Amino acid sequence: MDERRRQSGTSVDLGGAVLTALTDAQGSFTSYRDGFPGSSDELESFGRNRYSELYAGAAWVLPFRAFLVRSESGVVLIDAGLGPKPGDFLPARQGWLPSELEAAGVSPDAVEIVLLTHLHVDHVGWAAADGRPYFSRARYVASATDWA
Description:
- 23% of the residues lie in helices and 34% in strands.
- With 148 residues, the protein is α+β, with helices and mostly antiparallel strands.
């Protein structure tokens, strides 16, 4: 079982709400130094030792996550992954978020709020697929700073 599948679907009861980790994509994104050019050797070494599953040689292998929150108040999706076309920095493949939601027993129409932590491509991909809101009944929320 790959690391993505081991962690995806993991749920935590928060006392009135259940948080479920979902994975939209996973792949070699860049080297650690490309992502954090000012970082120290010590910090990179700590990361490699503590999170060895995130490294393949010089490559930094990242999971691109979203989180589902279910409560009596409704269904909230935190972030919307890379989407149907992940981009040039990952192998050309469709993101896994729809199948991850299905495995969690949630349809796109059941999502009431999509909370976008910030508007980077790896957080908004499924917000609109083919120019239409993928979560058609949801209210989309982003910070005013990112939206401006």
